[in-house]
Amino acid sequence: MSSKKRNCVKTRTVTSPPDLVLIWILDSRYLPIELLNPSTNRDLTKCDVFSLGCTVYEIILGEKLPKNGKEWIAIREGKLRLGEIELLPTELEDLVQMMLQVSSFCFY
User: Fold this and answer.
1) Band of the pLDDT at 27, cuts 50, 70, 90?
2) pLDDT value, residue 86
3) Do 55 and 65 contact (CB within 8 A), yes or no?
4) Residue 1 counted as domain residue
5) Domain for residue 48, yes or no?
6) In the 8-state DSSP scheme, what is residue 21?
7) The domain that contains 82 carries what CATH number?
């Protein structure tokens, strides 16, 4: 067994008042910034689209996404490095851009 500790982020979200749900996120690389605001109502199943978009983006880049910092923020602002990738189909670039538009997916 590995003795490594995982970096966990604990957030609270209100799904239907007064029910509170605790959400444990094991990796901030795939975390939509909106989940850090516990006072906002959101559809968490739609936020999964953002996380999947991060996974696809990571595969396209061929490198791990940052856990924090300027590039972490840039990704959440839609500033992606997809232009650096040769022969990337336009349809795939558009899909990843759309999946990483957090505000259009996470709120209802």
Assistant:
1) confident
2) 87
3) no
4) no
5) yes
6) E
7) 1.10.510.10
Which residues, at least 6 apart from 15, have a Cβ–Cβ distance to it below 8 Å?
Answer: 21, 41, 44
Q: How many angstroms separate the CA atoms of 30 and 58, rounded? A: 10
Q: Whole-prediction pTM value?
A: 0.69
**DSSP run (H or E) holding 9:** strand 9-16
Residue 102 confidence (pLDDT) above 50: yes
Range of 85's domain? 9-106
User: Looking at the domain assignment, is residue 4 inside a domain?
Assistant: no
Q: Which long-range contacts (CB under 8 A, 24 or more apart) does 47-55 make?
A: 47/102, 47/105, 47/106, 49/99, 49/105, 50/99, 50/100, 50/102, 50/105, 50/106, 52/99, 53/96, 53/98, 53/99, 53/100, 54/29, 54/30, 54/100, 55/30
Three-state DSSP class for residue 16: strand
